[in-house]
Amino acid sequence: MAEKMTVHNPMGFPPKVTQLAMAPRMDSLEGRPIFLVDCRFDDGDVLMKQMQYWFRDNMPTVRTELRRKAGVHKEHDPELFEEIRSSNGAAIFGVGH
Fold first, then answer.
1. Are 76 and 69 in contact (CB under 8 A)?
2. Coil/strand/helix, residue 24
3. Could you list the pLDDT tens digit for every one of the 97 residues in the chain?
4. Strands (E) located in the chain
5. pLDDT for position 55
6. What are the contacts of 54-58 at 24+ separation with CB within 8 A?
7. Angle at alpha carbon of residue 45, lines to 36 and 24, rounded to 5°
């Protein structure tokens, strides 16, 4: 006699996602701060440091600033977001491997 087995669907219930529009493209990065933000997810800081080296070597007039987001990668960090917003710069949020 075969055993009875219960199987669960691994898909789960994904959260509702509200799509936001992308920020308008800047004319130039010259003279603007670029925040390289580590989202605290598997070696994101390593990725951001590599990007900082790239900017240093390829766009030396662009100032980069490394930042580490408060909390885990999916949590909001209002202080950091306000700093970036008020700087007239841009941000690149990086997630590691």
1. no
2. coil
3. 788 888 888 888 888 989 999 888 889 888 889 999 998 888 888 889 999 999 999 999 999 999 999 887 778 899 999 999 999 889 998 876 5
4. 33-38, 63-68, 90-94
5. 95
6. none
7. 25
8 Å CB contact between 68 and 48: no
Give Cβ neighbours of residue 53 (< 8 Å, ≥ 6 apart). none
**Amino acid at position 16, single letter:** K
Other Cβ atoms within 10 Å of 71 Cβ, number: 10
Each residue of 3-40: b (16+ CB within 10 Å) or e? eeeeeeeeeeeeeeeeeeeeeeeeeebeeebbbbbbbb
Q: 44: alpha, beta or left, given left = phi > 0 and alpha = psi -120 to 50?
A: alpha
Overall residue count recorded for the chain in this entry: 97
